[in-house]
Amino acid sequence: MAAVTTTNDAEFARARAAMPGGVNSPVRAFGSVGATPRFLVSASGARVTDVEGREYVDLVGSWGPAILGHAHPAVVKAVQDAASRGLGFGASTPGETELAELVEARIARPASEPARPIERLRLVSTGTEATMTAIRLARGATRRDLIVKFAGHYHGHSDGLLAEAGSGVATLALPGSAGVPAAIAAQTLVIPYNDVDVVREVFATRGADIAAIIVEAAPANMGIVPPQRGFNAAIARIAHAHGALLILDEVLTGFRAGPAGWWGIDPVPFAPDLFTFGKVIGGGLPLAALGGSAQLMDQLAPLGPVYQAGTLSGNPLAVAAGLATLRALDTAAYARIDAASAAIADAAADALTAQGVAHRVQRAGSLFSIAFADTPPHDYETVKAQDAFRYPPFFRAMLDAGVSLPPSVFEAWFVSAAHDDRAVGQITDALPAAARAAAAA
Ligand code: PMP
């Protein structure tokens, strides 16, 4: 291990003097959990190590990408090999085609129509770019301007998508963002989640002007709030009946909820027009994507009039990491993630029950989070009504015990295939004290 030459507090003080809030993404500041963010220097498998040499069992997983565990040997080797051939060319590479073919083959559901809804994929660098481009494409294809978005859903930080957003916007209790022109915000209609009647109403009044509905396949940025059975299929039908598109945001759920994302396991099959991916698809490096039918996707430049571009799009290191990650994500890996998730979620529920703390384990496939509520939240209002004040002491007790949870009650707990029995055991051992802290809050 490297010699310890600094303290975490010293690193945070230095970072705050050099960068806004000392961070490059807001929730990393730990503001809502009343703790000092840990400055990390290395990570391996289910564990991360901070600048003081302290090790934590990690349930942040780089916010999703580290699904195989940190620094998975096959992924690291693929990146090293790619790096030795050049860091980027700004030209097409065979790997990009391979990755597109792999995604197109994986997002398949034999009993569905169309069985393979992605015929073309475009690689970008972040989830924000993927959803931003999907929206531009939907607007270009339909020649309409309005977008329907659900309160509490997070689709990245582009202007039109920050209204009543989840993730850090929810953690900081912001209605949206300063700096978004009112004229742009007015193009986004924000409605409550899981209520098909409201979707019907908004289309009944504005349907001719709506380009698309954008939806998290299974929302995970206000904690987990699973779609009610058939919700995605219902909103797809409504959108299509009005000539609008459905953009299924699988940036977080894609290749995590299962080999074909949430779409592959949603109990009622449906046909989105565009998919967006991020996180797992890049295996820890900056890579994201959008995909759909050839007819729709070919409206992107250079073939069509909808412009999108990127200096680093399809970067060969990111593509290598993505390919290695998807190849390693086999049935056995998903089974391990499912089993570890279930064990951790059940242990958290048991610990909280033992302390009489009202809670609900919110699940969507192997994704889960804990809501401090008597009844399962089903939309942003009910999510916000929970006893969120119980989370900071719970979080800090887990951190003290060497377990790194997401620093907000509005985030999923990210389990990886590297969470073996020992890692799960360390988490379950830490839970009773954390539940006591939550009870005392
Ligand atoms: N969509 C969803 C569903 C997400 O969870 C996120 C990130 N958490 C994004 C989009 C934005 O992705 P990025 O942070 O890579 O821009």
UniProtKB/TrEMBL annotation:
Q: What is its main location?
A: cytoplasm
N6-(pyridoxal phosphate)lysine (modified residue): where?
K279
- Record carries keyword Isomerase: yes
Q: Give the cofactors, semicolon-separated.
A: pyridoxal 5'-phosphate
Q: What class of enzyme is it?
A: isomerase
Database matches in PROSITE patterns: AA_TRANSFER_CLASS_3
Q: In which pathway does it act?
A: Porphyrin-containing compound metabolism; protoporphyrin-IX biosynthesis; 5-aminolevulinate from L-glutamyl-tRNA(Glu): step 2/2
Name the catalysed reactions.
(S)-4-amino-5-oxopentanoate = 5-aminolevulinate
Q: Which Pfam families match?
A: Aminotran_3 (PF00202)
Task: Write the record's keywords in alphabetical order, separated by commas.
Answer: Cytoplasm, Isomerase, Porphyrin biosynthesis, Pyridoxal phosphate
Quote the subcellular location field of this record. Cytoplasm
Q: What is its EC number?
A: 5.4.3.8
The protein's matches in PANTHER family, at most eight in alphabetical order, are given as:
GLUTAMATE-1-SEMIALDEHYDE 2,1-AMINOMUTASE, GLUTAMATE-1-SEMIALDEHYDE 2,1-AMINOMUTASE 1, CHLOROPLASTIC-RELATED
Subunit composition?
Homodimer.
Identify this protein by name.
Glutamate-1-semialdehyde 2,1-aminomutase
Gene transcribed to yield this protein: hemL
